[in-house]
Fold this protein.
Amino acid sequence: MMQPPQDQAILRLLQDRDGVATEVTLHDGTSLTVFNIAWGYDMGDVYAHVTTNISPDVEGACIDFFFTDAVRVIADPASGAVLLRPS
């Protein structure tokens, strides 16, 4: 039996902030500025792979790729408020 996805809160938050700069910090310390996401699951995965800032293209923004299980914290860069700290 397949496990259900384990990352719905992460994906929902990033989708809800579509078009708004959001800071995603990964467990390795990498900090990404995310404006929008495209995501998917490979067969059997419970964590999505995410590509940032391509749909639509955001001028001057880096296109990044990560898996949702690598997310340490999601914050609002304008206020510094932590929006989500996945367990």
Remarks:
- Residues 27 and 48 are 16 Å apart (CA to CA).
- The chain has one domain: 8-81.
